[in-house]
Amino acid sequence: MPLNSVLIAGGGPAGLALAQYLKKNNVPFRIVEKANESRLQGYSVSLHFGIPYIEQALGPERMVGFEEKVSVNHTKDTGFATVTSDGEILIQSRGTPTIVGTGVRANRNRLRQALLDGLDLETGVEITGVDISGDKVLAKSNKGEIIADLVIGADGLNSAVRKSIMGDMVDELTVVTLSGSRDISAEQHEAFVKYSPTHVMMHGKKLPGEEGVPNIFYSVNDVSKDNKIFNIRWILSWDRTLIYKDIPESNAELHDLAHRMVSRFPDPFKSLVQETDPTTKLWLGKVCQYMPDPNWNGQGKVTLIGDALHAMTPYRGEGLNHAMIDVVRLGEQLVKAHRDEISIGVAVTAYEAEAIPRGQRAVKASYDSAYQLHHGFSWLFTRMTKLVGLALYYTGSIPFLQLFFPKTH
Ligand SMILES: Cc1cc2nc3c(=O)[nH]c(=O)nc-3n(C[C@H](O)[C@H](O)[C@H](O)COP(=O)(O)OP(=O)(O)OC[C@H]3O[C@@H](n4cnc5c(N)ncnc54)[C@H](O)[C@@H]3O)c2cc1C
After folding, report:
1. For residue 59, which of 38, 66, 264, 283 sits 20 to 30 Å off, Cα-Cα?
2. Residue 41 near ligand 1, beta carbon < 6 Å
3. What atom of ligand 1 comes closest to residue 35's alpha carbon?
4. Residue 186 resides in a domain
C-alpha cells in the first residue's frame, strides 16, 4: 500500500531537506513547524560531508551555485583554523575542516531559504505528542489532531515527538558558551583572514592553578553587498566546573565576564570582544546533547531524524551534516515503501538500524571534543596536532587524521 500520509514534525534543516527528498520522489507528505517565523540554531554552520546528501535531496539542478548562494561571504572562499593563544596555527584547512573534502561555511538564513524553496511549510503548528496505540499514528497539535501513516520527528533537541514516546533524556553538559554578534569593518576582518576567511577557533592558555581553558570562536555570519561590513559572531566557551564557575545573570555582568575572560587572548580576538557595544545582548548557552537510545521503539509508525535523534555538541561541526545523511537514508527507504516494495515498518527499521549507531558514534565523538578542547592540550598533543595540521594543509586530506579525529559517518 503506498504511503498516503507522512507527517514531518519540524521545519528545521532536517525536516525541510527530507520534505525536498520526498517531493522529488513523489511521496506525499505534510510538514509542520511550530514557529511562525524561523528561529535559527546559531548563525552560521559548516557544511562538509553533508553536502552530497543535500544534493540528493535538492537534485543537481538546484545545487548549481549552491556554495555561493548559501555561503557567509557569497563566495567559495572558506577555510578553518585552530590557533594557540600565541597565534600559532595548529590546523588550517583550505575549505571547511573535513577528512573527506572541502565544504562551505553557510549562512543559516540562506541555507534555510535554499531548503525551503518550493515547499508548502505549515507554520504555527506545534506537535505536542503522538499516540501510536492504533493502526495509524495520531499526532496531537495546538491546531488539532493529525492522522498519519508515519510521523517523523524532526523537531530538534527537545523533540516533543521523542519525549511522548521515550520521556525526556537530554543531557546538559558542563560546557557553557557566552556569545555576541556585531558588525565590523573589512579592515577589522582582515586581521582574522591570515587564519581563515570565514571562521577560526583560538585555544586559551591554561593559567597557573587552573584546570581548564576557555576557547574563543570567530565566525563570519554575513557580508554586506559592497564587502565593507562583516557581521560576525564571537563565542567564548569553557567548562564551568573548572573555571569561571560563578556565572552572572545580567547582561552588564556577562559583558564584564567576557571582558575578563578575553583579556588572556591577544588581539584581534581581545578587542573584538572588548569593543562589542556594551548594550549588545549577549547569549549564555548551555551545551546539550541527546544520545540515541538503542531501545527506541516507535513501532515503525514514528521515527526521528536530525537533532531529535542525535543532538551533539557543536565542537566537531557535524550535527547538521549527520541530519542530511538521515534524510537520504530514511528517504531511500520511504521511496521503497511508497512503491510497495517493502512495508513502512521494514523501511523504518532499516533506516534506524543505520542511523542509531551512527548517531551514537557522532554524539560520543562530539562530546569528547567538547571536553578535550576545554581541558587544554598537553605540549605533546599540541606538537602532534601541528604536524597533522601541516600534513592536512599540504595534502588537503590525510587518512591518518582519523587517528586524531575519528570519522563518525
Ligand atoms: C552554536 C551551534 C553551532 C553549530 N554548528 C554546526 C556546524 O558547524 N555544523 C553542523 O553540522 N552542525 C552544527 N550545529 C548543529 C546544527 O545546528 C543542528 O544539528 C541542526 O540545526 C539540526 O537540525 P534539525 O532540523 O534536526 O533541528 P533544529 O535545527 O533544532 O530544527 C527543529 C525545528 O523543529 C521545530 N520544532 C521544534 N519543536 C516542534 C514541535 N513540537 N512541533 C513542530 N515544530 C517543532 C523548531 O522550531 C525548528 O524549526 C551547531 C549547533 C549550534 C547550537
Report:
1. 38
2. yes
3. 47
4. no
Q: For the chain, how many structural domains are there in total?
A: 1
Q: Judge whether 79 lies within some domain.
A: no
How many whole angstroms separate alpha carbon 387 and alpha carbon 393?
10
The CA R_g of the chain, rounded to the nearest whole Å, is 22
Distance 175 CA to ligand 1 centre (A): 19
Residue 227 lies in a domain: no
φ, ψ of residue 269 to 5 degrees: the values are -65, -45
CA 199/CA 297 separation, integer angstroms = 40
- Residue bearing the CA closest to ligand 1, atom 37: 155
Range of the domain at 317: 6-74+106-170+290-370
Does a structural domain hold residue 258?
no
| Residue 96 CB less than 6 A away from ligand 1 | no
| pLDDT one-digit tens code per residue, 348-371 | 999 999 999 999 999 999 999 999
CB < 8 Å & 24+ apart, contacts of 368-371: 369/313, 369/315, 369/316, 370/173, 370/175, 370/287, 370/313, 370/315, 371/175, 371/239
- Tell me the CATH number at 35: 3.50.50.60
262 C-alpha to ligand 1 centroid (Å): 28
* Max avg pLDDT among 8-22, 27-41, 198-212, 384-398: 8-22
Would you say the CB of residue 97 lies under 6 angstroms from ligand 1? no
The proportion of the chain whose per-residue pLDDT surpasses 90, expressed as a percent, equals 80
In tens, the pLDDT along 42-88 reads: 689 999 899 999 999 999 999 999 999 999 999 888 888 889 999 98
Q: According to the model, what pLDDT value does residue 76 have?
A: 82
**Residue 314 in contact with ligand 1 by CB distance below 6 A:** yes
Q: Which protein residue has the closest C-alpha to ligand 1 atom 39?
A: 155
